[in-house]
Amino acid sequence: MLTASLTFSPDFVVAPVRRRTFGSFVEHMGRCVYTGIYEPDHPTADEDGFRGDVLALTRELGATVVRYPGGNFVSGYRWEDGVGPRADRPVRRDLAWRSIETNEVGIDEFARWADRAGVELMYAVNLGTRGVTEALDVHEYMNHPGGTQLSDLRRKHGSPEPHGVRLICLGNELDGPWQTGHKTAHEYGRLAAETARALRQAEPDLELVACGSSHSGMPTFGLWESTVLELAYDQIDHISCHAYYEPLDGDVDSFLASAVDMDRFIDSVVATADAVGARLKNPKRIGVSFDEWNVWYQQRFHADPPTEWRTAPRLIEDTYTVTDAVVVGNLLISLLRHSDRVHVACQAQLVNVIAPIRSEPGGPAWRQTIFHPFALTSRLARGEVLQVRVDSPTQRTSRFGEVPVVDAVATHDAGETSLFVVNRHRTEAVSLEVPVGDVGVQEAWLLSDEDTSAVNTAAAPDRVVPRRITPAVVDGVLKVELPPVSWSALPLR
Ligand code: AHR
Are residues 264 and 396 in the same domain? Predict the structure, then answer.
């Protein structure tokens, strides 16, 4: 068996745990909205047509902020299609996902859903086919108290109070040639700066997110960020990162080390932003909004893209394994470790579309494997994030070189520390020792399985769940065995 140890101290703090690290994402895509959060005929639906079972699971997941309405979808979206009497709302083509959008759900419904789910609404404006005027219009509709045409329209539509949206994304993935209204970095940087300036004239304390690269493998990665930031540094607060991971060519070792890539991605974007800040002699620090991240078997999607125009088609409904859950747990470790600069993070997406929650039309909703590390981390990570020194054996991966087998982060709040640990080795268990002094371990959780390809389904929704474990503390040292491909949460008191 391999051996590893962790050391940390409440004196060495990275940053506060930001509740917005536990964000999610609802896009008008596939069945995320229709038969996901919204299904008026469902037995659990409330008076507004929201599925009660999905709402309950969203609360249990511990999602804190939800980005809406896209994604690629937003780059062709007209927000006004989704407000007012349903009978008058147009049915349109969604070019991003080759789908039919009925517009039964729009901003007013989503704000009501967010309220019921107890989450903050993060809104993305369309800067693909639209610009400053439409961003101002949707802002007036959502946030202006009343007495103007669009705020009064919202009131007439049954929302007397403003939706109070604080966090706004200035478009989505506009560096990507697949994006409707794709732009060069210069074109986008100017548009983002002007849109941000106008939105701030309306409401100065908005938090604005400029698009970074769609992923770190983009040919323009780095240059895109520096160009956009040169043009919009003063006007924006955060720059976005997006990353999706999957085992490429069966390379599970590299897949299990995906968090190494996420660490490097965040560090590179922070370094780029700080270099621009230095060049501009601007002491302000730009935050990272990691507003799309997850495991996504993209190769399957590209092999079988949608060809017919359908309403709420089954798109990218990946069924997640134990290995996927361990990777997701590790990506959360990476995000938490970077809490000094990652101010927002949204797992993509919430229901059905590469999601922790699955639902069947007229049928049940259930927790995918990846639900569990998210829910437990959101519940147990409190107070401040601590620096952790990990002494671990390493292993070679073809994509990321030599990587530590064990990865971990700790949080600390009023005498209670929570450790989140992964063993990324495919076959070897690790005996882990952690000097903890005079504390006990309460309610520890382990996610692992003899069968790392095990999944949860409608028929067997709890095939994969975290197990309770009770690690020993001997002479002030916590000793725990980490099975291969495992994620653990260890709260210490
Ligand atoms: O989450 C699925 C898609 O992935 C989003 O619409 C897009 O922004 C990203 O490429």
Answer: no
108 and 143 share one domain = yes
Q: Given pLDDT bands bounded at 50, 70 and 90, which one contains residue 61?
A: very high
User: Residue 440: which domain range?
Assistant: 2-10+386-492
- CA dihedral 254→341→8→415, nearest 10 degrees, is -130
Final residue before a domain boundary, out of 382, 406, 432: 382
| Domain match, 467 and 347 both | no
Indicate the pTM of the whole model. Answer: 0.98
CATH code, 487: 2.60.40.1180
Residue nearest to atom 8 of ligand 1 (CA): 71
Reported as a pLDDT band with limits 50, 70 and 90, residue 484 is: very high
What's the CA-to-centroid distance between 443 and ligand 1, angstroms? Answer: 36
Number of neighbours of residue 454 by Cβ within 10 angstroms: 15
Q: Is 448 in the same domain as 470?
A: yes
Q: DSSP 3-state assignment of 352? A: coil
Please report the atom of ligand 1 found closest to the CA of residue 25.
Answer: 1
Distance from Cα 293 to the centre of ligand 1, integer Å = 9
Please state, rounded to an integer, the average pLDDT across all residues of the chain: 97
Q: Helices in 69-208 by DSSP H: which ranges?
A: 107-117, 132-143, 149-156, 185-202
Domains in the chain, number: 2
Ligand 1 atom, smallest distance to 349 CA:
1
Q: Which of 382, 404, 434 is the last residue of a domain?
A: 382
Residue nearest to atom 6 of ligand 1 (CA): 71
* Protein residue with least CA distance to atom 7, ligand 1: 71
**Ligand 1 atom with the shortest distance to the CA of 244:** 4
pLDDT given for residue 493 in this prediction = 85
Distance 97 CA to ligand 1 centre (A): 10
Cα 85 to Cα 322: distance, rounded to the nearest angstrom: 44
Give the torsion sign (CA, 241, 357, 296, 491): positive
Please check whether residues 363 and 393 belong to one and the same domain: no
Closest atom of ligand 1 to CA, residue 72: 6
Q: Which amino acids are annotated catalytic?
A: 173, 292
From the CA of 94, how far away is ligand 1's center (Å)? Answer: 14
Tell how far the Cα of 49 is from the centroid of ligand 1, in angstroms: 26
User: pLDDT-based confidence at 442, cuts 50/70/90?
Assistant: confident
Residue nearest to atom 4 of ligand 1 (CA): 71
Residues 54 and 151 in one domain: yes
Residues 399 and 338 in one domain: no
Q: Which residues pair with 384 in a beta bridge?
A: 16, 412
Q: Which of 378, 391, 372 is nearest to 447 (CA)?
A: 372
Residues with CB under 6 A from ligand 1: 27, 70-72, 172-173, 214, 292, 348-349
pLDDT in tens, 355-402: 999 999 999 999 999 999 999 999 999 999 999 999 999 999 999 999
The CATH number that applies at residue 236 is 3.20.20.80
Q: Are residues 376 and 395 in the same domain?
A: no
Give yes or no for a contact between 60 and 376, defined as CB atoms under 8 angstroms apart: no
Per-residue pLDDT at 415: 85
